[in-house]
Amino acid sequence: MTIYKAPLIDYKFLFEDVFDVYSIYQGLPNSSDLTPELTDDILEQAGKFAEQEIQPLNYPGHEEGCHWENGKVTTPKGYKEVYKKYIASGWTQISENPNYGGQGLPRIINAAIGEMNLSACAAFGIYVTRDGSIATIENNASKELKEKYLPKLIDGSWGGPMCMTEPHCGSDLGLLRTKAEPYNDGSYSISGTKMFITGGEGDLAENNIHLVLARLPDSPKGIKGISLFIVPNILVNDNGSLGDKNSVSCGSIEHKMGLNGSSTCVMNFDNATGFLVGEINKGMRAMFSMVNKSRFTIGQQGTALAEVSYQNAALYAQDRLQMRALTGVQYPELTADPIIVHPDVRRMLLIQRAFAEGSRAFNTYIALLFDKQERTVDEKEKQTCTTLLDLLTPICKGFNSEMCTESVNLGLQTFGGHGYIRENGMEQFVRDARAAQIYEGTTGIQGLDLLGRKILASQGKSLKVFTKEIHLFCEENKNHQQIKPFIDRLSKVNNQWLELTLKIGANAMTNPNDVGAASVDYLMYSGYVTFAYFWAKMAKVAADKLENNINNNINNNSPFHQAKLQTARFYFERILPRTALHAELMISSSDNLMEMEAENFVFNS
Q1: Among 163, 97, 100, which residue's Cα sits nearest to residue 374?
Q2: Could you tell me if 36 and 16 are in contact, meaning their C-beta atoms sit under 8 angstroms apart?
Q3: Number of helices and strands (H, E) in the chain?
Q4: Cα 187 from chain centre
Q5: Which of 13, 17, 28, 26 is nearest to 382 (CA)?
Q6: Phi, psi values for residue 236, rounded to 5°
Q7: For the ranges 340-349, 392-401, 471-480, 552-561, which has the lowest average pLDDT?
Q8: Whose CB has fewer CB within 10 Å in the chain, the N or C terminal residue?
């Protein structure tokens, strides 16, 4: 069976030393009372809950899965009881608006808690994450709808599934067929079928507040004709009490590769009563509040599963005896040496560690941007945060999920044959991780969004905001003796990032397919450079801490900071060079992809 320990020391390092978050929050409205002591206490308690309450659900919940019978979904044994404890403790309210029952603490704290929950049990962690639904209603709905639905969503009594995908259309929402017809009282009749709806039906919350994309009869075709509606599973009376059952039903649940404890539903709306969120035909604009936060959550899921897989692989490598070290016997009292002595095992472990800790720093930076975007009164700073979030969210979702899959496979590989056996738990991480590359838009969709919509459409302006930040960091630290090799490499790939973007843009002028052909390699390149930036920042702090110990004759070799520097070195010397391959691939013409006739892809005997 697997174990999990919350990475509290790593979060303390990021908050206090790498990002200096407490100084930043001193300058933001309604944030100055955030202290290290308060944060440490909250994260310690959240970590205990994840380790002691949520983690025990992981393996048995995976084995049992969800049950569907006559339209009702039952979650695995124990889920309901732990969910009640979770909401009773107020964890869903941490970072939400106090006007609707939230505690108003920064989202950076909620993000850390989210990672812990997803590491402990990804399937359960998904149920208690509803930031996107809350943000969509809060930013777009009428005052009446906000007051009616937000308090119960925030306190966890109600769930908030988002219902976008339909059986005939995945990411191409312009093809959706769900209909909305107006009633005389201002509500709407919603009819259609949605698919792949996470938590669409279940037994945890007493009501589900579905956010449904639909089209009015006279609306334009494509995404310009889509509107957004609140469609409760049980109708809510004016006084907030629950009323009649709405015409919403779960037609089935999917039998999936992983995340078995999370119900993935086919949802049927048969003249169900719905309420318009925002403006008619502006549903996609309203959904963007949800999309960015939901994609960020999937990026965090990548971090979370990589972390827990790494923890178990590293522990196993300390105990598993196999052969002797190439340099000679290391443990003569044992019949063989632990596999941690073998270079290839260390390669696998360091890739996992470099990704888990690098992505945690990246996620923390994004959560900090969300806070500054929401809280600052400086319009210029708000716009900068929005630009950076638009740029970095597809990288977070796409790159994190791709690297997570590599990491959990390496975790399984570290166990060898024992990793392939179900009861050891490592293969579950592989199964659970795989969905992250698909939902909220595949890696290909994220790549197109990043390169096409976010960068080329802005003529590179959004990218330049981030690359300028990296450039300034490199300039400030170019003479830092301990990390100079890292800075030199970071500066080189940062400059190349802009050069490659210009080349792809020029190629696309004559052949638009070149954008699609380059997009995934471009996203991966962008991810490696982004991680290099955060690894350089962490390495600088670690080096300074170690230097300070020496200068002040502090007899403390600080293994935590030493490990940071060593992992940074591994990243820059063995992972960052992958950018060279992606750089070559992204400027390769799309002709080698498009020249084959479509019918030749099908095997003919």
Answers
A1: 97
A2: yes
A3: 20, 12
A4: 34
A5: 28
A6: -110, 125
A7: 552-561
A8: C
Distance CA 117, CA 86 (A): 11
Q: pLDDT digits over 21-59, tens only?
A: 999 999 998 887 899 999 999 999 999 999 999 999 999
Q: Which of 53, 166, 307, 440 is catalytic?
A: 440
pLDDT digits (tens, 9 = 90+) for 542-584: 999 999 877 776 766 789 999 999 999 999 999 999 999 999 9
Quote the pTM value.
0.96
| Residue 150 token pair | 């937000």
Q: Sorting pLDDT into bands at 50, 70 and 90, what band is 1?
A: confident
CA distance 139 to 130: 14
Phi (first) and psi of residue 27, to 5 degrees: -95, 5
Nearest alpha carbon to residue 46 among 84, 8, 88? 8
Task: Using alpha carbons, list the distances in angstroms from residue 108 to 61, 338, 444.
Answer: 29, 39, 28
| Phi, psi (degrees; rounded to nearest 5) at 248 | -125, 130
Q: Give buried/exposed letters for 355-365 (b at 16+ CB in 10 A, else e).
A: bbbbbbbbbbb
Q: Is 440 a catalytic residue?
A: yes
Least confident of 127-131, 156-160, 213-217, 343-347: 127-131
* CA 600/CA 603 separation, integer angstroms: 7
